[in-house]
Amino acid sequence: MNSKSFRILSLEIFMSLLLTLIIIVLSSRFTLNFKPIYYYDLVNYNISEQTGFTNKEIKENYDYIVGFVGTWQEMDFHLPSMNYSDSGKQHFVDVKDLFNNLDVLLIISLVLLSLSLVLFGKKIKFKFLKYSSLTLLILPLILGTFFFINFDTSFTMFHKIFFRNDMWLFDPSMDPIINILPQEFFYHSAISILLGLALCSMISLFIYKRINK
Fold first, then answer.
1. Spatial distance between the Cα atoms of 152 and 158, rounded to a whole number of angstroms
2. Which of 129, 153, 169, 198 is 20 to 30 A from 187, comparing alpha carbons?
């Protein structure tokens, strides 16, 4: 492989990484805002009966959390109708910071990918679409297997990786909000993200094949 081919290959791999990051963030963002997942679990798992809160109370507090962690706006955390501890409040602030950081990563990746296409679009063979497609297919298969085998362990590992404290370990007596967020909901949300990645994998591969006909 000559130096020119190596540079093109390196560029395509870099672009595939950018595209993969973009899709991961967008899939996570979509799942966060796709409330029907939670509304289904609310009914399916009888959360109202299990917790003693009305469906209206549950929805307004859940909707508040989604709005809080998903916005860039500076705002103080205050659940509409549930008690919460300082550590519980801090965890939701940490989740908000995580999503804000993901948004920054999204913007940077979009800018870099766009610049790469503008500057080098005529020199590449768009193999980055194929590379990204393979990554987005393998990732859900691997993570999905771990989730299926032991989601509780996977859930714990996720929090230990992305949060530098143990404030995600809620005490239901202090933070009853955790009672309306069953683990099944987080499992379904994780699967939704992985399905989004798999779908984008197929779309990327389809576009690659159309371009290289």
1. 10
2. 129
Tokens, residue 213: 């006909």
Task: Please give the Cα distance from 133 to 115 (Å, whole number).
Answer: 21
Q: Tokens for 148, please give them.
A: 């299926």
Distance CA 113, CA 18 (A): 6
Name which of 38, 34, 78 is nearest 58 in CA terms: 38
User: Of 197, 190, 192, which is closest to residue 136 (Cα–Cα)?
Assistant: 197
User: What pTM was estimated for this model as a whole?
Assistant: 0.94
How much of the chain, in percent, has pLDDT values that exceed 70?
100
Q: Mention every residue, 6+ apart, whose C-beta is less than 8 A from residue 194.
A: 139, 140, 143, 144, 147
Quickly state the pLDDT bin for 49 (edges 50, 70, 90): very high
What is the chain's Cα-based Rg? 20
Q: Answer whether 120's CB lies under 8 Å from 191's CB.
A: no
Are 33 and 161 in contact by the 8 Å Cβ rule? The answer is: no
Q: Are 13 and 131 in contact (CB under 8 A)?
A: yes
Whether 172 and 178 have beta carbons less than 8 Å apart is answered as yes
How far is 68 from 73, CA to CA, in rounded Å? 8
Cβ 77 vs Cβ 88: under 8 Å: no
Amino acid at 138: I
Question: Does position 132 have pLDDT exceeding 80, yes or no?
Answer: yes
Burial of 94 (0-12, 13-18, 19+ CB in 10 A): middle
